[in-house]
Amino acid sequence: MRDSTKSVKESIDPTTGAITTPIYQTSAFLYPEGEKYRYSREVNPTVLELGKKIAELEEAEAGLAFSSGMGAISTTLLTLLRPGKRLLVHLDMFGRSLRFAKDYLTSWGVKVDVSPPKDKDMMEMLGKGYDVVMIESITNPLLRVIDVESIGKICAETGTTLLVDSTFATPINQKPLLYNASLVIHSASKFLAGHNDVITGLIAGKGVLVREIDQMRRTLGTSLDPHPAYLTIRGMKTLKIRMDVINRNALEIAEFLESHPKVSKVYYPGLKSHESHSVARKVLKGYGGVVSFEVKGGSEQALKVMKSTSVIIPAQSLGGVNSLISHPATMSHRTLSPEERKASGITDSLLRLSVGIEDVEDLIEDLDKALEKI
């Protein structure tokens, strides 16, 4: 089956014949008939179906759902790492992921190295030998497309466990497991669920690793409630058609912004001017729905643009049917120090636009009017 079919298809309930997955809103199950499930923190039929769907889309052996994207990341890293183990991450990743690695895992005795935001630097560092490497296939917010093919090849040769946060790419634009990743991670609150109404995290990958992480999830309690699981399954049914529209809209908006006199720089891997455009053409089927850009001026001008849109909503999230705009320096990446933001290339004039499925002409007009106010 192809991605559109996988996204829509659900398991049919053998007892009732329900063609959509029911919300099993229960804490426990009748014993011994309910022995497979027992207790919803451990296993719930609705949540189980969501894990199955992400495994199918990512062409993985198994999938698993969590209470949030950070729940998926923290539970996975706590399962695979322990004092003395070595982890490699890159500087230009999501702020909370970097904080968890640098602040918590190092305090727990894990040896954490942070690569500069260049593929060649990371590939050179891989020679030192690591137990786990974690990358974002498309970085947040400057949209550097990491050469997962080359990094995955090195990790496979050295026996290193490669984790890929593929939130920005989605299974529609990239399947990291085909590039030797051991696990793929999603903040499914974003493009997968797609409606800005749930908090969900997902992983998919090798069955032996997913089962091990599942035991840690049950212990930590980073379990997903059945209702957001149901909403995520429902949202995923339109994933392919949403991403097709979002990919087109984002490229057109990026091209518009690149020619705008009030914009000094645009970051979008679909543009030939982007530093990783050649890598993006190699490892992505589509360039995604996030466009970042710097306005002429500083923080004051950027915030004025963000607050002047009428169709696009100023908000910190991304990946929904509604277009959202945010200021990374004071929002998604506020936990980074000024020095860390500078090293990552995040300036005070940078805005991150999550492109939705609205009419692209309305979005361009909205941006144009907001930019004219600075």
From TrEMBL:
GO terms for molecular function: cysteine-S-conjugate beta-lyase activity; pyridoxal phosphate binding. The keyword Transmembrane does not apply. GO terms for cellular component: cytoplasm. One of its GO terms (biological process) is transsulfuration. This is Cystathionine gamma-synthase. The keyword S-adenosyl-L-methionine does not apply. Its cofactor is pyridoxal 5'-phosphate. InterPro entries: Cys/Met-Metab_PyrdxlP-dep_enz (IPR000277), PyrdxlP-dep_Trfase (IPR015424), PyrdxlP-dep_Trfase_major (IPR015421), PyrdxlP-dep_Trfase_small (IPR015422). Keywords: Lyase, Pyridoxal phosphate. The lineage of its organism: Archaea, Thermoproteota, Thermoprotei, Sulfolobales, Sulfolobaceae.
